[in-house]
Write a structure and sequence with these properties.
By secondary structure, the protein is an alpha/beta fold. Helices cover 36% and strands 11% of the residues. A seven-stranded parallel β-sheet has the order 3-2-1-4-5-6-7, with helices on both faces. The longest helix is centred in the middle third of the chain and has 22 residues.
Length: 290
């Protein structure tokens, strides 16, 4: 899609319920990979993508399908968005499994991996994408309740421990783990203190896990998006903040999920066979020196 087709601003809008819904966004995110043409980079692979119902996760799941992978999607309760993603994956000729539940619960993570491997993956899992996250802006640390703190950490980083631990017996040499971190991991965010802290933890987790699993031939990398137009944005920021979202980037606009998904395809494919412990930065031009 051409540069001029990507909006540099959004109408003021806010959704009261998290996670947000794509059907209530204006404009809808560009996350269907409509112009993407696969070349068989993931033929026959089985992938699990958390947060795959919409936004970055949807774009990644569809791109994987267009590259030849069957894709299981973990999501909380956004059933309509998830069913649309399933429709698009099946339209690409691949299978899709939908698994709703709370990834902050280790028991659910265990069941999700079990279902993917036993009912969908024919005893195997090739790609694990830890992508789901939540955020709750607060202007002061004393406004972050114990409940919010624990919830954000459970969803954003504890879940990665749970899922990797559950998936490890089924990940063979050549398997890939790809974790979604954030530009906030590198520069911080004063109004997203707990969220940014989890993203910093994810970056350290990615680097450390890559060292631990290297001898098993499992590659672990991450992607650190900048401001991307997803349901997370109108469901967590005020209408006024949404109207300014992404304007401070070098490119002067927020990114779209379709612009982020190719980073995940690269890391999942044989093209990235000599990369582990690394993070890619589709962030609109912010220089990251870390």
């Amino acid at each position: 899609m051409a540069q001029q087709d990507k909006p540099d601003s959004f109408p003021p809008q806010h959704q009261e319920v998290q996670p947000g819904r794509e059907t209530q966004m204006d404009p809808a995110p560009q996350d269907r990979m409509e112009g993407y043409r696969g070349s068989g980079k993931l033929d026959g692979k089985v992938a699990l993508v958390t947060g795959g119902d919409s936004g970055i996760g949807r774009a990644v799941a569809i791109a994987f399908a267009k590259e030849g992978a069957d894709v299981a999607i973990g999501y909380l309760d956004e059933h309509d968005d998830a069913k649309e993603t399933q429709r698009l994956i099946e339209a690409a000729g691949r299978r899709c499994m939908l698994i709703p539940g709370d990834i902050g619960d280790p028991g659910f993570c265990n069941r999700m991996v079990h279902d993917v491997v036993s009912d969908f993956g024919r005893g195997r899992l090739d790609i694990l994408v830890n992508n789901a996250a939540e955020q709750h802006p607060q202007e002061s640390i004393d406004k972050i309740t114990d409940e919010q703190l624990e919830r954000t950490f459970r969803t954003n980083i504890f879940s990665m421990f749970y899922l990797v631990r559950a998936a490890l017996p089924y990940l063979k040499p050549g398997a890939r783990i790809i974790n979604s971190t954030s530009v906030t991991s590198y520069r911080g965010s004063g109004h997203l203190l707990d969220y940014a802290a989890t993203k910093g933890a994810i970056t350290a987790f990615t680097r450390s896990l890559s060292q631990q699993l290297a001898e098993k031939g499992i590659l672990v990398n991450g992607v650190a998006p900048g401001p991307i137009w997803t349901p997370l944005i109108p469901s967590t920021f005020s209408a006024e903040q949404v109207a300014q979202f992404g304007k401070s980037t070098t490119l002067g606009r927020a990114g779209q999920p379709d612009e982020v998904a190719p980073s995940y395809v690269f890391l999942a494919s044989a093209d990235a066979s000599y990369m582990t412990g690394q993070v890619l930065h589709p962030n609109g031009g912010e220089v990251v020196n870390a």
